[in-house]
């Protein structure tokens, strides 16, 4: 793929990712607030129905400076960051993987990870339905394209050993500290991630997500944070660049 083709592919991947990010953020918010999933998007402040120019991912938020054009109600920054994050991930996945089935598999996981991060941020819970969707999505690609991605054995090892070890550590810490230390939803997410990343990749995922969680605690100045967003970001990063990072680390020794 030459430079022009890469730029073309990257552009449309970013546009698609931004649109998907906007959709996921909207649907997650409606489900959380127990609103209907159908119908046009409206400003939560004045009820104004949003027009086409107010629904352009990223640009509408920036042009309106994060506020409704009519009532000046603040638009949550989650909308902007959801669109940007999925645009970046779709672009990275499109340029990182050669086969189209790998690009599509990664894009589907990215959508689910964003939904998990947004939901866990507000509820401190990771829905089992989203974890099941991510697992079924990967199993489908493993059956249809067995030569691409991690093998079934490597996926099982990455899932069971990493999440199992974390589960054992969690049980010991819970008994020692007499409170929940690691959410079981986070452990299940790590289990699902193992099928995408394999043993080495999921170990790297655990390291990066833990480091990111520590940084989040320091930035937010709190001892309790939703760990799902950190795991989601780390999983997305390791999916695209974990293998290359591992190879680099191995070759320096």
Summarize the structure in words.
By secondary structure, the protein is mainly alpha-helical. It is built from eight helices and no strands. The longest helix is centred in the last third of the chain and has 37 residues.
Key structural traits:
253 residues
**Total strands:** 0
Secondary-structure element order, N to C = HHHHHHHH
Question: Could you give a short account of the major beta sheet?
Answer: none
Compute the gyration radius: what is it? 19 Å
Low-pLDDT residue spans = none
**What percent of residues adopt helix (DSSP H or I)?**
over 70%
Secondary structure tally, helices: 8
Structural class, by secondary structure, is mainly alpha
Distance between the termini: 32 Å
User: For the residues shown, what is the average pLDDT?
Assistant: 90
Shape by Cα distribution: globular
What percent strand? under 5%
How do the strands and helices of this protein lay out in sequence?
Blueprint: H1 3-32, H2 59-63, H3 77-96, H4 100-123, H5 128-144, H6 152-177, H7 184-220, H8 228-251
Short characterization:
The protein has 253 residues and is an all-alpha fold. It has eight helices and no strands.
């Amino acid at each position: 793929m030459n430079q022009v083709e890469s730029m073309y592919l990257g552009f449309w991947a970013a546009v698609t990712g931004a649109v998907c990010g906007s959709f996921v953020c909207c649907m997650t918010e409606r489900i959380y607030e127990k609103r209907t999933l159908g119908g046009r998007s409206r400003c939560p402040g004045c009820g104004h129905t949003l027009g086409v120019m107010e629904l352009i991912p990223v640009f509408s938020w920036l042009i309106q400076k994060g506020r409704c054009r009519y009532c000046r109600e603040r638009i949550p920054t989650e909308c902007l960051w959801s669109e940007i994050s999925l645009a970046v991930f779709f672009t990275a996945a499109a340029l990182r993987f050669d086969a189209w089935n790998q690009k599509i598999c990664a894009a589907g996981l990215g959508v689910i990870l964003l939904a998990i991060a947004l939901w866990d941020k507000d509820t401190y819970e990771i829905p089992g339905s989203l974890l099941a969707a991510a697992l079924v999505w990967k199993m489908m690609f493993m059956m249809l394209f067995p030569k691409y991605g991690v093998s079934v054995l490597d996926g099982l090892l990455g899932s069971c050993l990493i999440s199992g070890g974390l589960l054992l550590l969690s049980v010991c810490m819970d008994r020692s500290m007499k409170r929940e230390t690691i959410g079981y939803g986070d452990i299940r997410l790590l289990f699902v991630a193992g099928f995408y990343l394999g043993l080495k990749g999921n170990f790297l995922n655990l390291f990066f997500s833990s480091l990111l969680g520590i940084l989040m605690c320091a930035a937010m100045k709190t001892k309790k944070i939703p760990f799902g967003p950190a795991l989601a970001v780390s999983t997305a990063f390791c999916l695209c660049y974990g293998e290359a990072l591992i190879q680099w680390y191995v070759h320096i020794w």
